Amino acid sequence: MHDVRKIDVMESIYDxxxxxxxxxxxxxxxxGIFAVxxxxxxxxxxxxxxxxxxxxxxxxxxxxxxxxxxxxxxxxALRALGxxxxxxxxxxxxxxxxxxxxxxxxxxxxDSKGVLFIENIGNLxxxxxxxxxxxxxxxxxxxxxxxDKPYKYPLAFEKADLIxxxxxxxxxxxxxxxxxxxxxxxxxxxxxxxxxxxxxxGEGFAAAAAWIAERAKAI
Length: 219
Ligand SMILES: Nc1nc2c(ncn2[C@@H]2O[C@H](COP(=O)(O)OP(=O)(O)OP(=O)(O)O)[C@@H](O)[C@H]2O)c(=O)[nH]1
Ligand SMILES: [Mg+2]
Known about the structure:
By secondary structure, the chain is an alpha/beta fold. 41% of the residues lie in helices and 20% in strands. It is built from 8 helices and 7 strands; from the N terminus they run αβαβαβαββααβαβα. The mean pLDDT is 95. Guanosine-5'-triphosphate binds next to helix 2.
């Protein structure tokens, strides 16, 4: 009895979220804004990767929504680089949802076509359950978090359109097992592109920016 009720409530929460997310996507598409939901564990390098990709975006204006439980450290760092960044603080919630992003988008001005990066809360679990109106889902992983992550956190890997393997400059110092990682990933997701990147050396950001620009053409 209890279980049945719980499922009903969750379904209605997801339905409502999806409805608002579809509205955000439509609105951004009309304005020529390609939105990417950037997910990954705390400290995996989400902000660093966003900065690296922005430096390689050609002819597309970057916009950022920063999601953090508290603080505006990441938004301030981006603004210092001249990037338009809107901070969301969830004060406890472990993911962004479509109503929060809808409010942020309503408070931002998009004066030319471009790419909206939505940096989700650092977490490999909850953000994967809520679409926020993105056109593409980018999952940031790293050679320092272990090669077993697709096996332990399958939903994020299943849903990703692009996987960026970050911190590859640290590969020589880790026991990262690429074959084991790829086996777990491909069992869940045959199509996602995977690009190795490094916030230290800048490797891979041009390729990641090119992937986004190619996808953005479709809108
Ligand atoms: N060596 C190395 N360090 C990196 C790389 N990318 C990020 N870092 C470092 O990792 C730390 C976390 O990077 P952030 O970009 O702040 O990570 P984040 O995922 O945005 O963190 P939260 O927003 O707090 O979840 C910083 O000290 C970065 O300098 C990389 O490719 N190589
Ligand atoms: Mg960050």
